[in-house]
Amino acid sequence: MMGMMTSRGKRAxxxxxxxxxxxxxxxxxxxTSSVPRIVSRDGRHALMVDGAPFxxxxxxxxxxxxxxxxxxxxxxxxxxxxxxxLEIPVAWEQVEPVEGRFDFTYVDALLAGARARNxxxxxxxxxxxxxxxxxYVPAWVKTDGRRFPRMRxxxxxTHYALSPHSRTTLEADKRAFVALMRHLRDxxxxxxxIMVQVENxxxxxxxxxxxxxxxxxxxxxxxxxxxxKRGSWTEAYGKLAEAAFNSxxxxxxxxxxxxxxxxxxxxxxxxxxxVGSPFATPGEDGGASGGPNWPxxxxxxxxxxxxxxxxxxIYNRDARAYAEYLRLYDRPDNALMVPETGNAADYARxxxxxxxxxxIGFAPFGFDDTGYVNYPLGTKVVDAATVEAxxxxxxxxxxxxxxxxxxxxxxxxxGSAKPADGGDQTMVMGRWRVTTQYGLWQFGEKDSPWLKTxxxxxxxxxxxxxxxxxxxxxxxxxxxxxxRVRLDLATxxxxxxxxxxxxxxxxxxxxxxxxxLRVLNGDQTDYGLNFTRPMLIRVTMGTYx
Length: 545
Known about the structure:
Layout: H1 7-22, E1 37-41, E2 44-49, E3 52-54, E4 56-60, H2 75-80, E5 85-91, H3 92-95, H4 105-117, E6 120-130, H5 139-142, E7 150-152, E8 158-162, H6 167-187, E9 193-200, H7 213-220, H8 233-237, H9 241-264, E10 269-274, H10 297-303, E11 309-314, H11 319-329, E12 337-341, H12 350-356, E13 361-364, H13 384-397, H14 401-410, E14 413-417, E15 425-429, E16 432-437, H15 449-453, E17 465-472, E18 475-481, E19 483-489, E20 497-508, E21 514-519, H16 523-526, E22 529-531, E23 535-544
Parallel strand pairs: 4-5, 4-13, 5-6, 6-9, 9-10, 10-11, 11-12, 12-13
Antiparallel strand pairs: 1-2, 2-3, 7-8, 14-17, 15-16, 16-19, 17-18, 18-23, 19-22, 20-21, 20-23
Helix pairs in contact: 1-14, 6-9, 9-10
């Protein structure tokens, strides 16, 4: 391929990488510069791996694929998807089946497999909570309710979930987690593991909090000063009081585990949320009470300062709801990451929305060859078409993932996915309005007669989207598929008209230099910028009178 980056483009990339290297993480700088960490700049974020920005194009294996004998059914799917990161559980029950005796055989097999394939790992610690359940704790915990108490219901009977108020349970979980982190420190010198998820979808269903006498006494007490509210929980939080109370105590529990682990091996850590409806009244949204659901993110931030972020698990196929989840979790104090989302083909379009929000990672759940599917949350069958819906997009972004992450840290971004009604979506970026349109042939406009008699095959399909980085006031980098993108003046001065000065299809090489494949013009730009297959373009806009 021919063509070189413009001098302005070079300055943009150098600035992106420079700011990524200069921003210090919230937690003290690690002893070695290559230790993964998260950096922030002007409300934007990046995951740094081996000293460079890293965009996690992930895949999460099924829950029970976390054994050495299952890994041959996992690795091929990771490679088929063109993913660069595998998310996979490490269960407390498998590393400490006998109290005080640890077995990291599986972890070593995982590290060896990732190293051989040049892949990264996000380990999911299934300890006290896995989707609020204690299903992954060792048998010696499950069978000893006196040492490891479960929550109590209002009538005094035993609830299924372990209590976050038990110091004994916390210490046991923490001891096992620290043993894991110590093993990683010694067995993972090249940082195959780039992040660790502490617990999984914590909280509780069926009630809002522990109703045991000791927990009741705590609930009647004052709100902790760290929450910067006064009075009782009910006075401070109203209808959200019980969920906020449980969130504080679950958050403190998980933070203590994370802090102990980071003291041994300081890699980025997060926890995930089983989210409720993003449009419901807080406290009535249906999410797990006590987990980092969107109405209580502030409480979690105060309770768990040793977590780099809290992340939403999103199993909602509606583009409007998906975008709202991203908005709620994309915060100046919280890097956006989607560690779980559906693996049905219609979820693939949301990669563009996540990238457009400056997300540091995205991972569809349940991709391996073990034969399990979690329909209706995900696909009915893991077939070639389902895999390709994700793989074709990852294949475009994977070679430029570091460059994209660096640019997204330094510049404004926006993303769009086809909504339920297929309507246009717009965003103003500087003096330009960016519009995405769906279900159109590449030649012609919406009112063209042939669109009425022969509609596009994707007109009623949930496919398509685009992600945009504004590299300079008049320059844009756009990735997308099954979408038409238009750029025009947002508020034109009288007499001014928009024009495309140059449109290049291409990619970035390993050094971060733009390499032009071809210049797009004529039919390829007369009716907007049309993406069918995933494609990357650079656009320079201008005006004329």
